[in-house]
Amino acid sequence: MLGDLIVQTTGKRLVRRVLSIDPPTAEVSFEDSGPILGVPTTGIGSYTSVVRPDGSTFGHGQGFNLTQDGDSITWTGTGVGHFGPGGSISYRGMLFFQTASQNSPASTTPAVPSNTK
Length: 117
What we know:
A hairpin with a 5-residue loop joins strand 5 and strand 6. Helix content is about 0%, strand content about 65%. The chain is mainly β. The model has no long low-confidence stretch (mean pLDDT about 85). Strands 1, 2, 3, 4, 5, 6, 7 and 8 form an 8-stranded antiparallel beta sheet that branches. It is built from no helices and 8 strands.
């Protein structure tokens, strides 16, 4: 499983709000869709990012995805990132998945995300 693609979702930001200016902290909510371990899902999530003194960001988030059969897969994650061109941001971190479904291998799968938003 090491090196296998676990999650590949695409989505859109729904809400972005400022939580603090000292340190600069923002919360983002989004919805997405795409396969988790090959199973089609739709989901929602949110994460909070803090801009650190060196300009990098530290973030953590949580959310859940639903399969076409109605099974839910929850996730929590944390990571660090940096800003790119046009306001994009790229994160590297860790996601942890959990599900009560007996049909999904996501119940025991951690993932190392590599994304650009």
